[in-house]
Amino acid sequence: MNKTTIFINAFALLCLIVAFLRDKEKTRQAIKIAVKSFVRILPTIIIIIMLIGLLMGLVPQKHISKIIGEQAGIMGVFIVAIMGTFLHIPSLISFPLAASLLKNGASLTSVAVFITTLTMIGIVTLPLEIKILGKKMAILRNLLSFIIAIIIGIIIGAIL
Amino acid sequence: MRKDKVKSKKIKQDILILFLILFITIIVILSFPDKKEKIITNGWNFFVEMILILPAVMILTGLFNVFISKENIVKYLGKTAGLKAIMFGIIMGSLPTGPLYVAFPLAAALLKKGARISCIIAFLSAWACIKIPQEMVEIQFLGIKFMALRLILTIIFVIIMGLIIEKLIERREINANI
């Protein structure tokens, strides 16, 4: 267990105790929600983890780095941005996926762009966003998010 | 009721894909025995790392879900103004209180109440990509430096994006839409 794991668990435990002291009924409800969402997300997590295993076991590093690594340049960044835009996986799981790509030769820029477009842009929820907030606002938000995701990724790649 | 049906269908679909991938993995391992160890150790390591933090992440999400009501978010966000409102929008959005589609009606309600467009864009974007438990998972897998830098940059650019969209959309366009 590393420090982060211990910290997250300690923090969750602390919040749970405070919540329990404040309102038992609500805390019970919160735990119920937690268990439900845990069960709901578990199959997806196992799917992604098996995919990570296959990806790391089968695809040679040089292939990944050629497509989305340092030498792939702006085209590689563009590819991951598009991937992040259209894929619909929970952001929680995008982090281990991103970490496995990073270990296998993807660039920091690609990984940052992937996570940012994946979370910020929702093609699946776009019709609903248009319906509720109007065409102009929804499309502008998603379009600009795409652009700023690329800018954020490039800056991260330059700094780290 | 209808929502529950959709959810259970989604779970069935996930489990189906799960078995499909399991099947593929077994076939791959059987046909490339030399890759077996690499596939299994890699998958297992990620699984352990994930399973050690997932219950904590879910409990935090559940707690926020119950203790911070959507009415409260609307109430507090409606009150503030200026740059403070934008920052507040980001903070409110970053509390894990459900998927993005829950935020759209909230955003519409806030706009109707007269909230600034930039504030609402910041709120929606933060809701989409800044979540406190998620940031912890990001530290776990990508390191605190990566997470902190991405978080800071996201906040800065989300504010800029909000201000740009505010300039591009006229108030009455919004009112006509909602």
What does this structure look like?
The complex is a heterodimer of chains A (160) and B (178). Chain A has 160 residues and is an all-alpha fold. Chain A has 2 domains: 1-58; 61-160, no CATH class. In chain A, 85% of the residues lie in helices and 0% in strands. In chain A, helix 1 runs antiparallel to helix 2, helix 4 (73-86) crosses helix 8 (135-159) and helix 7 packs across helix 8. The two termini of chain A are 25 Å apart. With 178 residues, chain B is mostly helical. Chain B has 2 domains: 2-66; 68-177, no CATH class. Helices cover 87% and strands 0% of the residues of chain B. Chain B contains 9 helices and no strands. Chain B has helices at residues 2-31, 36-67, 70-79, 82-94, 100-112, 117-129, 132-142, 144-168, 171-177. In chain B, helix 2 (36-67) packs antiparallel against helix 7, helix 4 packs parallel to helix 6 (117-129) and helix 7 crosses helix 8. The longest helix of chain B is centred in the first third of the chain and has 32 residues, at 36-67. The mean pLDDT of chain B is 86. Classes of the chains: A mainly alpha (160), B mainly alpha (178). Chains A and B meet through helix 1, helix 2, helix 5, helix 6 and helix 7 of A and helix 1, helix 2, helix 5, helix 6 and helix 7 of B.
